[in-house]
Amino acid sequence: MMAFEVGRKMDLLELQKAFGEENCEFDSVNKVVMCTFRRMENGNIAATSGGRTIYRGRGSEHLIREDETWFCELKQNPNISHQYFANPLLKVDASFLYDLRREQYDELLGHVWEEHRQDIESDLEMMYVDTLDEKAKAIASASIREYEERETALRSDLAAIEEKVSNLVSENEALVLREEDHLAKEELYKDKVLSLEERLFVLEAERDELMSALEMERKRSAEVPRKKHRVSVSESKDMDDLLIRTGVDTLYSSRFTRDRYKIRFASDMSYIKFIVDENGDVHCKDGNIRVKGLDGVIPFDGMKEIRLRTISKLEMVVDL
Questions:
Q1: Which fold has domain 12-115?
Q2: Could you give phi then psi for residue 80, rounded to 5 degrees?
């Protein structure tokens, strides 16, 4: 076995050349390869490379343990072509890796990756699947929380908008009701105005007719000689007790001998009282007096004689 130079960093190819090999192919009897030994199903500790099984060789001064990686010199089993025995040369551990140059380290990693790719991928998957799962769960949980917060905020905004819309609808309905009420009142007022206009038209027509009748009566009254309303003392006593309506608001009686009278209507309009009063508001001339509003109490329908009752020297009454 070839001894290694102490303190010298050896290239992997140099290590292979030291044992007469330039590559790791199994074309010759003696080879130098890097092997990772594991416990097989049959309980033996062995390595595999290129579809071949590599067992620990006997008589070596180094003891190969489970899960250790070594640079080994391989010798083919003369009886079984696909079996080899490993003679350990250099253990790949932390101190070995620490002494490697960068290019040696990269070369070693490349060799390990090519030789044990499936195992490394499986180990990496087992190593990081939990970490990735936790990260995925954390990301999903954060996303869910963010979504729930946004959903809550949106629902709150939606509730506020719905409340505003509801208030606007209520206000609009109230406005519609007020408008409908206004229109109904307007129609009612229009009907009332129309009714009042019709009544006013009728009243104006009646007024015109009444004014025409009054004008005709005034003309007839003007044609009657004034002396006709004067009754001499020598005439019968019955004439003294008569009141003659000579016009719409004019009365004549021989009893009206004073200058002024005060006139009172009964509350039930059953009679008219004539009271002699120097301060009375009705003026008398030649037995004729004018009573304002008389036509409103007793409509005028032509000249008429009414019995006049004497209550005292100062009071006279006409029953209606």
A1: OB fold (Dihydrolipoamide Acetyltransferase, E2P) (2.40.50)
A2: -125, 115
The full DSSP string for 79-92 is S-TTEEEEEEEEE-
Among 246, 245, 279, 274, smallest CA distance to 260 is for: 279
Q: How far is CA 195 from CA 99, 187, 190, 312, in A?
A: 122, 12, 8, 51
Residue with tokens 């009752």: 309
pLDDT per position as a tens digit, 24-59: 444 444 577 888 888 988 888 888 877 788 888 877
50 conformational bin, left if phi > 0, alpha if psi -120 to 50, beta if neither? left
**Residue 192: CA atoms inside 13 Å, Cβ hemisphere, count?**
6
Assigned token pair, 272: 């008219």
Query: Which residues are registered as beta bridge partners of 53?
Result: 48, 83
List of residues 6+ apart from 35 with CB closer than 8 A: 47, 49, 54, 69, 70, 72, 86
Domain chopping of the chain, boundaries: 12-115, 131-196, 229-319
Phi, psi values for residue 97, rounded to 5°: -65, -35
- The secondary structure element, H or E, covering residue 240 is helix 237-240
pLDDT per residue as tens digits for the range 179-234? 888 888 888 888 888 888 888 888 888 877 877 777 787 777 666 554 444 444 44
